[in-house]
């Protein structure tokens, strides 16, 4: 089949086209020689304008996987991943070890000078040992993918990285033409109609009997755990609850994402589409970021609300800094982070006193931790050591996790789990999935938690979860 030169000219240059054909041809030759599928990687400068959020919601290519990612704390932190070239799912507790092995094997299949630009997406459940409940039945314990199309912004505009699985039987010209049609479809502006609304054959998993965590049940759990901490069984335990929202019409993902993007000017806005469900949120917490071996970790623990005016805001922040309960909770989290990574991170540094990090509706105690990772380690090794942090689980970790399974009575799924991107060198950035919800058509399940210590007040801890739920509730209420 001949290539439609007119369409290709509108999407990329002749030089880009030549590189694309050459790279796919090289990958085909490698596949013929090795008997193993090769992956062609080509990045181009993309000059066509289109709305990334609209593209995510409309899902013009009808794929099962997409990621929208906007890191407001990075100068160029906007990415849109569409489809998968290769992907792997896991349903067991050894998911992180399996992901490292899979990442290493896929790296060997990459072909092309632009393979260095490849970004893998990884998402892990909070507790891989926990069985998936009805809410999370469609999701695995771990998901690792190489996006088929990856749009990213930089100082010059937008790049598009295309990856293609190539066998010895592939027709090179047909594959290039298919890529052209796919990208063309993404740029087309059609009358807005969400795929979630138009997919009549989708599997319905909305459960009308699903209920939110009962307020009194949560408060009794807080009191029980606090007493156990007083008895010396734990130093800290984080208890979470869920809120179920149901409406007659489908939730508007685009409207919710735009609302979060407008009101939350720091942290990471994310949306992951898997099958027919969307896991989305605006998380303030970076688990770890590695850039050329230099790492940064967020210690975020201790919370209060924002004030009605600047004076009230400053007073609340001062009270938070002076709160022995919140400072103790923060110290537990910081000590846990340091202990978890000190064997593979050199030159660990962090300030002695936390500062205030303000978000739209809450403010936290915050301590940045930095250092240099050992040469033989990757960002995945840090994720393995850090997750779950004391900020989302507790201390000691194993005992806290057992108490969470006993007390919460629900599957957190990917709430409070790590998600992020990594490259072929092992650098990358992972965040903790907080301030989030799982959306399925007309049903949304929201999650929030609070750190319990010896002097925790059940009423205050429940109120803290209400503050944390507010961003997503407000966004989903937008029409």
From TrEMBL:
<feature type="domain" description="Chorismate-utilising enzyme C-terminal">
    <location>
        <begin position="217"/>
        <end position="468"/>
    </location>
</feature>
<dbReference type="Pfam" id="PF00425">
    <property type="entry name" value="Chorismate_bind"/>
</dbReference>
<protein>
    <recommendedName>
        <fullName>isochorismate synthase</fullName>
        <ecNumber>5.4.4.2</ecNumber>
    </recommendedName>
</protein>
<dbReference type="GO" id="GO:0008909">
    <property type="term" value="F:isochorismate synthase activity"/>
</dbReference>
<dbReference type="InterPro" id="IPR004561">
    <property type="entry name" value="IsoChor_synthase"/>
</dbReference>
<dbReference type="InterPro" id="IPR005801">
    <property type="entry name" value="ADC_synthase"/>
</dbReference>
<dbReference type="InterPro" id="IPR015890">
    <property type="entry name" value="Chorismate_C"/>
</dbReference>
<comment type="similarity">
    <text>Belongs to the isochorismate synthase family.</text>
</comment>
<keyword id="KW-0413">Isomerase</keyword>
């Amino acid at each position: 089949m001949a290539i439609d030169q007119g369409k290709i000219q509108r999407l990329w240059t002749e030089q880009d086209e030549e590189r694309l054909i050459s790279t796919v041809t090289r990958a085909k030759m490698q596949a013929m020689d090795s008997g193993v599928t090769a992956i062609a990687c080509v990045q181009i400068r993309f000059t066509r304008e289109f709305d990334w959020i609209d593209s995510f919601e409309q899902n013009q290519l009808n794929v099962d996987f997409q990621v929208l990612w906007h890191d407001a704390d990075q100068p160029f932190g906007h990415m849109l991943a569409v489809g998968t070239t290769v992907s792997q799912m896991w349903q067991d507790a050894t998911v992180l070890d399996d992901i490292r092995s899979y990442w290493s094997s896929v790296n060997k299949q990459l072909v092309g000078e632009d393979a260095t630009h490849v970004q893998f997406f990884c998402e892990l459940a909070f507790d891989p040992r926990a069985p998936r409940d009805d809410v999370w039945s469609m999701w695995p314990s771990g998901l690792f993918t190489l996006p088929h199309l990856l749009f990213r912004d930089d100082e010059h505009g937008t790049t598009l990285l295309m990856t293609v699985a190539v066998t010895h039987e592939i027709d090179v010209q047909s594959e290039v033409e298919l890529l052209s049609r796919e990208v063309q479809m993404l740029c087309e502006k059609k009358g807005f109609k969400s795929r979630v609304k138009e997919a009549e054959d989708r599997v319905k998993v909305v459960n009308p009997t699903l209920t939110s965590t009962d307020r009194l049940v949560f408060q009794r759990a807080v009191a029980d755990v606090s007493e156990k901490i007083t008895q010396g069984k734990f130093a800290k335990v984080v208890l979470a609850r869920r809120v179920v929202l149901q409406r007659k019409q489908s939730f508007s993902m685009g409207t919710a994402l735009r609302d979060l993007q407008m009101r939350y000017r720091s942290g990471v806005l994310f949306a992951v589409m898997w099958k027919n469900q969307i896991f989305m949120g605006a998380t303030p917490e970076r688990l770890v970021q590695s850039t050329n071996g230099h790492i940064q970790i967020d210690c975020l623990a201790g919370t209060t609300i924002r004030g009605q005016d600047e004076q009230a805001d400053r007073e609340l922040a001062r009270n938070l800094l002076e709160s022995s309960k919140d400072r103790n909770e923060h110290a537990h989290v910081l000590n846990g982070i340091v202990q978890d990574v000190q064997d593979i991170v050199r030159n660990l540094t962090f300030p002695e006193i936390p500062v205030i990090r303000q978000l739209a509706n809450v403010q936290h105690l915050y301590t940045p931790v930095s250092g240099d990772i050992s040469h033989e380690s990757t960002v995945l090794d840090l994720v393995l050591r850090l997750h779950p942090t004391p900020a989302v689980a507790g201390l000691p970790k194993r005992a806290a996790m057992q108490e969470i399974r006993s007390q919460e009575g629900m599957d957190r799924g990917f709430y409070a789990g790590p998600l992020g991107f990594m490259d072929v060198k092992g650098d990358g950035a992972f965040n903790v999935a907080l301030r989030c919800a799982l959306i399925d058509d007309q049903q949304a399940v929201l999650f929030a938690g609070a750190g319990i210590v010896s002097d925790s007040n059940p009423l205050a801890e429940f109120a803290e979860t209400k503050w944390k739920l507010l961003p997503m509730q407000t966004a989903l209420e937008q029409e």
